[in-house]
Amino acid sequence: MHPCPAPFNLADYVLTAGRATPDKIALAVLGPARAERWSFARLETAVRAMAGGLRGLGLAPGARVLLRLGNDTHFPVAFLGAIAAGLVPVPTAQGLSVAELDSMSPLIAPDAILAAPGVTLPSAPGCKVVTDLAALMAGPADSFALGDPDRPAFIVFTSGSSGRPKPVVHAHRAIWARRMMWDGWYGLRPDDRVLHAGAFNWTFTLGTGLLDPWSIGATALIPAPGTKPEALTLLLKRHDATIFAAVPGVFRKLLKSADPLQLPKLRHALSAGEKLSQLLREQWQDATGCMIHEALGMSECSTFISGSPARPAPAHSLGFPQPGRRIAVLGPNGAAVAKGDVGILAIHRDDPGLMLGYLGADFLPKLPLRGAWFATGDLVSAASSGALLYHGRHDDILTTGGYRIAPLEIEAAFHDAAGLIECAATALPVKADTDVLALAYSGTATPEALAALAAARLARYKQPRLYLPLESLPRSANGKLDRKALIALLKDRS
User: Fold this and answer.
1) pLDDT grade, residue 349 (50/70/90)?
2) Is 283 helix (H, G, I), strand (E, B) or coil?
């Protein structure tokens, strides 16, 4: 792709396309009775007012602004307003505890905090806390701070699935790199109406549900806070959504709903956040006539492997590297593995969407590399078609009886089990220095039926020894399977 233009400002770029259609709806927040609608003109006015208010606080360029906001329109306005002003916002999930914030806050040392009333804050903020955002935005609007596209634009935290969450620093150019997703994943068009099922403060929603549609001049549709998944079918139909984005669990709930999935305007759906099963993909297509295009990504580079309307992913695969991406599959020695062999997926350091690095103790971003490559921790192999097959996370690998096993390999054996809603494999300690494979699951399937299926499909050392029924599997606020919480839950039961 063409290099990011300079000088550049991420917020200015996101709002540029909408200036051609200022009265077009940029954002609709969909409530049960009515929708809150924002035109592109209103959105830009609010962003520029936020930029002016933040500059009025006397913050220096590059100052870090912690966002402790609810799931409403203040969130994207504050995010873009801070970037417009040349500041560096740090979006965080609304539900974080004080203890979690106290562990994260020293890593970023915020210069200011924007907070909704009643939202948790660090116990000792150590900086100015602004809760009256209306007053902050009451002053004169400001212009966009243009500059080097490689300078920091925003910071997000990793999920912490492999340990303590880490602050990831992204450059202004990160939004330019997302253009590779327009055709490589979304099939995005200016006339699209994109409904994302996630909360504003999740990076999947922020990027796929808001920033990317706005960057091309499309309309973003977001369910109002508290909307139940079962209501999404009606919202998709009532508001003529053409693209629907969600985590796999949301698709699963909609398929089990009593409401028919008659969505005549929907062109296709998008899935990310965790692995989408082939069965779920097929069930959705059978029910709606629309494909789900899956993408693999991470906080450090957003999505970069995907299927798309122009090039659907072959069955059981993730899809292909998006056009313009440079990736490799590396072995333990850092060299590329042979096609078909499993290795760690890596991104070239020159990918414009790759983070500047993790924020270090000196508040300078550091990018850990293996030579020219950033290793993601995802285990993949390449098929002859060039599509990538997913084998789980390097840090999720289970070790029992001297064998190393990917949990996804075990879980895939039960994809069509009668009465099974979902399942997750884990290693469960049963006594000192002894772990056994366990399968936690929800649904009406019996342990005996699941064990028979495992015996027919898995090598003996891959077969779970315990089958543990649960009402539901634990998930994060964003709907992703929380494997750490699952292990803790199963330990408490044992």
Assistant:
1) very high
2) helix
Rg of the chain over Cα atoms, rounded to whole angstroms, equals: 23
pTM for the structure as a whole: 0.85
The Cα 167–Cα 158 span in angstroms is: 7
Tell me where in the chain the CATH 3.40.50.12780 domain(s) lie: 10-320+351-378
Instruction: Say whether pLDDT at 160 is over 60.
Output: no
- Any residues with CB less than 8 A from the CB of 132 and at least 6 apart, and which? none
Nearest Cα neighbor of 155 from 117, 104, 120 is 104
Compute the distance between CA of residue 272 and CA of residue 50 in angstroms, rounded to an integer: 31
399-435: pLDDT as tens digits: 665 566 778 878 888 988 999 999 999 988 877 656 7
371 CB-contact burial (10 Å; exposed 0-12 / middle 13-18 / buried 19+) = exposed
Instruction: Just give the CATH number of 397-493.
Output: 3.30.300.30
pLDDT bin (cut points 50, 70, 90) of residue 275 is confident
Beta strands per DSSP E along 315-462: 320-321, 327-330, 343-348, 357-359, 365-366, 373-382, 388-393, 398-400, 403-405, 420-431, 434-443
Distance CA 94, CA 100 (A): 11
Q: So what's the pLDDT on residue 401?
A: 59
Q: What SS3 class is residue 267? A: coil
For the stretch 17-35, what's the b/e string if a residue is b when 16 or more beta carbons lie within 10 angstroms of its beta carbon? bbeeeeebbbbbbbeeeeb
Contact 194, 169 (CB under 8 A): no
Over the stretch 282-314, which tens digit does the pLDDT of each residue have?
A: 999 999 999 999 999 989 999 999 999 999 999
Encoded tokens for 173: 């150019």
Q: What is the pLDDT of residues 56-78, one digit of tens each?
A: 999 999 999 999 998 899 999 99
Of 254, 380, 269, 261, nearest to 316 (Cα)? 380
Q: Which of 54, 430, 73, 27 is nearest to 218 (CA)?
A: 27
Q: Please tell us whether the domain made up of 10-320+351-378 is placed in CATH 3.40.50.12780.
A: yes
Q: What CA–CA distance (Å, rounded) separates 438 from 429?
A: 10
Structure tokens at 164: 């303590």
- Give start and end residues of each alpha helix (H) in 109-222: 133-136, 174-177, 179-181, 203-204, 212-216
pLDDT at position 439 over 90: yes
Q: Within the chain, which residue ranges are assigned CATH 3.30.300.30?
A: 397-493
Q: In 85-107, which positions are buried (b, 16+ CB within 10 angstroms) versus exposed (e)?
A: bbbbbbbbebebeeebbeebbeb
What whole-number distance in Å separates Cα of residue 185 and Cα of residue 208? 10
